[in-house]
Amino acid sequence: MTETTLAGVLESVTTKALSGVRPTPEEMLAVLRSADEDLLDVVAAASRVRRRYFGTRVKLNFLVNMKSGMCPEDCTYCSQRLGSKSQIMKYSWLSAEEAADNAERAVAAGAKRVCLVASGRGPADRDIDRVAETVGAIKGAAPEVEVCVCLGLLKPGQAERLRESGADAYNHNLNTSEENYRDICSTHTFDDRVQTVSQAKHAGLSPCSGAIFGMGETDEDVVDVAMALKDLDPDSVPVNFLIPFEGTPMHGRWELTPQRCLRVLAAFRFMFPDVEVRLAGGREIHLRTMQPLALHLANSIFLGDYLTSEGQPGEEDLKMIADAGFTVEGAEERTLPTARHDLVAVRRRGAGTSLPANT
Predict the structure, then answer these.
(1) Which residues take part in binding [4Fe-4S] cluster (predicted)?
(2) N or C: which terminal CB in the chain sees fewer CB atoms within 10 Å?
(3) Residues 122, 76 share a domain
(4) Cβ neighbours of residue 131 under 8 Å, at least 6 residues apart?
(5) How far apart are alpha carbons 244 and 254 in whole angstroms?
(6) In this structure, is residue 355 part of a structural domain?
């Protein structure tokens, strides 16, 4: 691609993003296929969009792994999968008190959202009761915190019960394109995942859904999953980069470069201009010293560890954010632009909480 052509594409996708218009698949492909020497131009263009809607704020999120390992699903990227030989901690459900204690420490460190995650195909009704108790314990200790739940595929009525318990959001990632999905999982389908995100949204939970990159996907797969996610209209989009755990079929896949990760993040910012784009799993090992540059694209990160792997220490995350010229988003600040229908904000207004507009 010539410099003139890339400059034209970047101007077009930036103008569209600032006007709320979806980029074309061809434009997304052009961003993903741009040369390394043009990377700063790509980042600068996407950064204009990030600053327009989110300023210099970074939202902090914290994972609580409530149930680890022993999953009956065969997702090839996952260390908790059926038949996994990965050396990870395996345990049944944390108590509500232990989960709430972990959440309290995260909130004290600046986390605005706590994500409760449990391995498995999906929750039984008694699991919903258990999670509801945990949500209540967390909200009782820190009523201002957002609670997102991630339990797998939902059965009818379960999303409504989670919402009634006080949960704010539900996460279920599409992970990759529909075409590529059959190559990474055989125990459930891409449509199963789409249906769960739709159920959660219909029940009034803020939809959170993203993808994992580094699993052998093509540029077209990246565009396809971005388009599928756009159709679901999520409030938050986690962007994960594969951690190729030993003991999984994806072991040894180190195909990502920092430059590739940044181009993916830029493409997602153009596709989701006014949505929380979250820098998630694998950022430390794939972006490495270029993590601060990613903050110019993503407006949200996970603080500390992930489900079965260690992350960058929280203190280093906070230093990185400050050194890069960003500030941690406060609990009283609204994440999404006021023009966007934000289900978390809607719920809080219903509870009588006043939310300031974005600046």
Answers:
(1) 71, 75, 78
(2) C
(3) yes
(4) 66, 116, 118, 123, 149, 151, 162, 165, 167
(5) 7
(6) no
- 215 with 118, same domain: the answer is yes
Indicate the annotated binding residues. Answer: 71, 75, 78, 115, 148, 208, 278
Backbone φ and ψ of 118, nearest 5°: -135, 135
Task: List, in sequence order, every beta strand (DSSP E) within 46-133.
Answer: 57-67, 113-118
Active site amino acids: 71, 75, 78, 115, 148, 208, 278
Q: Do 65 and 130 fall into the same domain?
A: yes
User: Among residues 286, 292, 281, 218, which one has the least CA distance to residue 258?
Assistant: 286
Please give the single-letter amino acid code of residue 335: T
Bind-site residues for [4Fe-4S] cluster: 71, 75, 78
Residues 6+ apart with CB under 8 A from 322: none
126: three-class secondary structure by DSSP: helix
Could you list the residues known to form a binding site for [2Fe-2S] cluster, using ranges: 115, 148, 208, 278
Q: Are 83 and 189 within one domain?
A: yes
Kindly indicate the confidence band of residue 2, based on its pLDDT and cuts at 50, 70 and 90: low
What is the tally of structural domains in the chain?
2
What pLDDT, in 10s, does the model give residues 47-100? 999 999 999 999 999 999 888 877 889 999 888 776 766 766 777 888 999 888
Q: Please check whether residues 104 and 184 belong to one and the same domain.
A: yes
CA angle 358, 198, 280 (to 5 degrees): 55
Beta bridge partners of 116: 64, 149
C-alpha 24/C-alpha 122 separation (Å) is 35
The rounded Cα 13 to chain-centroid distance in angstroms is: 22
The DSSP element (H or E) to which 44 belongs, if any, is helix 39-54
| Residues 309, 326 share a domain | yes
Same domain, 204 and 117: yes
Tell me the residue range of the domain where 39 lies.
Answer: 3-47
Sign of CA dihedral 14, 19, 20, 22: negative
Structure tokens at 105: 């420490």
- pLDDT, residue 88, reads 65
Q: How many whole angstroms separate alpha carbon 198 and alpha carbon 154?
A: 10
Which structure tokens are listed for 122? 């999906």
